[in-house]
Amino acid sequence: MRGFENMLMDPYLNGGAFAKLRDRVVAYNLAIIDQWVARGVDAVFFSDDWGSQRGLLISPDDWRKFYKPAYKAMFDRVRAGGAHVWMHLCGNIIPILPDLIDLGLNVLNPVQPQAMDVHLLAREFGGSVCFNGGVDVQGTMVHGSPEDVRRELHTLVELFGSHNGGYIADTSHTIMPESPLDNVIALFEALLEYQ
Known about the structure:
- It is a single chain.
- This protein is of the alpha/beta class.
- It has one domain (42-192): TIM Barrel, CATH 3.20.20.
- The chain is 52% helix and 9% strand.
- The protein is built from 9 helices and 5 strands, in the order H-H-E-H-H-E-H-E-H-E-H-H-E-H.
- It has helices spanning 4-13, 15-38, 60-66, 68-80, 97-103, 118-125, 140-143, 146-161, 181-192; strands at residues 43-47, 84-88, 107-109, 130-132, 167-168.
- The protein has a 5-stranded parallel sheet with strand order 1-2-3-4-5.
- Helix 6 (118-125) links the parallel strand 3 and strand 4 (130-132).
- Helix 1 packs across helix 2, helix 2 runs parallel beside helix 4 (68-80) and helix 8 runs parallel beside helix 9 (181-192).
- The mean pLDDT is 95.
């Protein structure tokens, strides 16, 4: 509503108006969540981008101060309604991942290997959250061979899948149009090995 740059600056330059708008958006979202859980959905999917490929867009402490309470209210409502919390967060969000898990995050989408260390994710957070995605659409899918694609998927399944319910195999984002067709076929063939 305010645009990306304003959204990042408003908490510091216009805190009162920022908090009022944020709280109204949360109230709206809570009403929508109520409608979904009343219909018996299994999960509610949130989508925000707090990370770049190098790190968070704001400091973790500022995220906790300005945004964490909003997510707590929404996640609590989903969980109280008997549904799971799924969230799309591009980029490296490792500094706030423990916060999101504490708030009740069930599934993190996507795992972006060019932004986050998949071995660190599995070691530090495996079993605490289910990871969704990870086959690298920026690298492996575009520049790798079909065997590279298969190997990467198998590695991800081994890393995250060792935790009961800890992995949903998928790509790190939308498959790029320049991905060779053979790589796309290799991905689907490798996925079929786990059905």
